[in-house]
Specification:
Elements (H helix, E strand, L loop, with lengths): L4 E10 L2 E11 L3 E7 L5 H8 L7 E6 L2 E3 L4 H6 L2 E4 L11 H5 L6 E2 L2 E2 L1 H15 L14 H14 L4 E5 L7 H16 L3 E5 L3 H7 L2 E6 L2 E6 L7 H9 L17 E9 L7 E6 L3 E5 L6 H9 L6 E6 L2 E3 L4 H6 L2 E4 L3 H5 L6 H6 L7 E2 L3 E2 L1 H14 L16 H13 L6 E5 L7 H16 L3 E5 L3 H7 L2 E6 L2 E7 L5 H8 L2 H8 L1
Length: 504
């Protein structure tokens, strides 16, 4: 039986970089085929070729043994293909219904029938087990909810071939379970699925087969994934053995460096207080909507707090804006790199230097371009950012390499005291995670106070000295490293009713 989807010797070149080089593999009906590889390995580029955003420079794409050419995304959709990209693509000022049916809205004599659209979407969402308000505007939804909208958009098209690029990177545990059920239902319905993820547990739970990419080439295809050890996949991805991804190392802790006292804001249900010592890494965990990111926006000056005090090295400070926070040595690496992190049309060098360039002024008027270039090159090398040059526009980099550039921006600040990292490894491969954890440890060893928000519980447990758990807009409790386990952390994070139900 022929494959539903076949990539035959696909090649793609961008200025200064070969993104894909002779990639070939098959995806069969009723199969979930995993794609794994480091950031910049070519996985997302391949999906953009499948989705009609790029055209291959060499090779062929075949559907049911027939060669196809997609000159646009519309042509790909028309051929029964749905691609859910890692970087979300939605219209923020339209509703859930309008986003889901964009291009296929029910109409009467040219006028959109909003009632019919809402009814159709509500019925389909209910059938899929997805809890979304059809009338809500995308701008008002959380990152996780927007991600679910993108996933549902593809499923509503009844596509034969569905590709998902890091679909759970922003989802809660409950939303991830809903997605997994949808994927299994699609597999049972004989759809052909491609599933990209850096999370090894997901690949083994969902995928029948797996193809490994490295530097734009196919390294291996495993047609019986269950028989392949995890260590083999990691080594194929990064080209070296990584025995302990977290590589936690103890360090002496100093006095309290960063103290938050009774801070209150719109997204919090009670005043919040916490403190971080010099050299300490405090992990914040909670379900989506627990208030972690909103709390950090308040202490960073990105949102206005109603009450509370912030202290640095035992002295009260004013943080009424992000600029004031940065001048105090407090920086934040945001969760949503596309909306809040990168300047898409600027170069990699400009994105790295955008904050610290105030230190490179000569006479207060002229920028020292040589220093900026040296700073950019240093961090490109340190964090192994895959880019043809510092002059490359950052929007052409993979999501993980964009994340590294944002992290570099704050590492370039000369007088860091507090570093807040909101989902710092979201969408990042195992090798790059290992490198970023080492950078975090180095910052802590310099005496920085580190706050790390993560939705990946193993990551929080693996990196943190202490874990603070938030639930429904307040702190539910905290645990030292030695007493923290998945069960103890989840028991604090879950609402009481869910905890009782799980115990039963």
């Amino acid at each position: 039986m022929s494959a539903t989807l076949r990539f035959d010797n696909i090649g793609k070149v961008f200025p200064g970089v070969r993104a894909l080089d002779g990639v070939s593999f098959d995806v069969n009906a009723g199969e979930v085929h995993g794609l794994m590889g480091e950031n910049g390995a070519g996985k997302s580029t391949l999906l953009k070729i499948l989705g009609g955003e790029y055209q291959p420079d060499s090779g062929r794409v075949l559907i049911d043994d027939q060669e196809v050419h997609f000159a646009s995304a519309a042509a790909s959709i028309g051929a029964g293909i749905a691609v859910i990209h890692q970087e979300l693509q939605y219209v923020p000022d339209l509703t859930v219904s309008e986003n889901l049916l964009l291009g296929a809205l029910p109409n009467r004599l040219g006028w959109v029938n909003k009632r019919a659209a809402k009814k159709h979407v509500a019925e389909r969402l209910t059938a899929m087990g997805v809890d979304l308000d059809p009338n809500a505007k995308l701008r008002k939804l959380s990152i996780a909810q927007r991600q679910m909208v993108e996933i549902c958009k593809a499923l509503l098209r009844n596509a034969r071939v569905i590709a998902l690029d890091e679909p759970t990177s922003s989802l809660s545990h409950r939303e991830t379970e809903v997605l997994f059920k949808l994927v299994r239902d699609l597999k049972a319905d004989k759809r052909a699925l491609i599933y990209i993820s850096h999370r090894m547990d997901e690949i083994y739970e969902l995928c029948d087969a797996c193809t490994i990419f490295r530097d734009g080439r196919k390294i291996a295809s495993h047609l019986a994934l269950a028989d392949v050890p995890r260590e083999t996949l990691v080594q194929e991805m990064v080209g070296r053995e990584i025995s302990d991804i977290y590589n936690y190392r103890e360090r002496p802790l100093g006095d309290v460096r960063f103290s938050v006292k009774n801070v209150l804001g719109d997204a919090l249900s009670a005043p919040v207080s916490f403190e971080v010592k010099r050299g300490e890494i405090v992990g914040f965990f909670g379900l989506v909507g627990a208030g972690r990111s909103e709390l950090m926006h308040l202490v960073y000056g990105a949102d206005k707090k109603k009450d509370g005090e912030i202290q640095l090295d035992g002295k009260p400070i004013k943080v009424r804006s992000t600029g004031e926070a940065i001048r105090h040595g407090i920086v934040l690496c945001p969760e949503d790199r596309k909306e809040e992190g990168i300047v898409a049309m600027a170069t990699v060098a400009e994105n790295i230097n955008i904050s610290c360039r105030r230190h490179y002024l000569r006479g207060g008027l002229f920028l020292d371009r040589k220093k900026e270039a040296q700073t950019a090159d240093r961090f490109i090398q340190l964090l192994k950012i895959k880019t043809p040059s510092r002059k490359q526009r950052i929007r052409f980099l993979s999501g993980g390499n964009q994340q590294k550039a944002i992290l570099s921006r704050w590492l370039a600040e000369p007088d860091l005291k507090v570093v807040i990292l909101d989902e710092p490894t979201r969408g990042i491969d195992v090798g790059a995670k290992h490198e970023i954890y080492n950078v975090i440890y180095q910052l802590a060893e310099r005496g920085c106070a580190i706050v790390m928000i993560s939705s990946e519980l193993p990551e929080v447990l693996g990196v943190s000295d202490r874990i603070v758990v938030m639930r429904q807009g307040r702190i539910a409790g905290e645990l030292p490293r030695g007493k923290a386990s998945e069960q103890s952390v989840l028991s604090l994070a879950l609402p009481q009713a869910e905890t009782v139900a799980q115990a039963a």
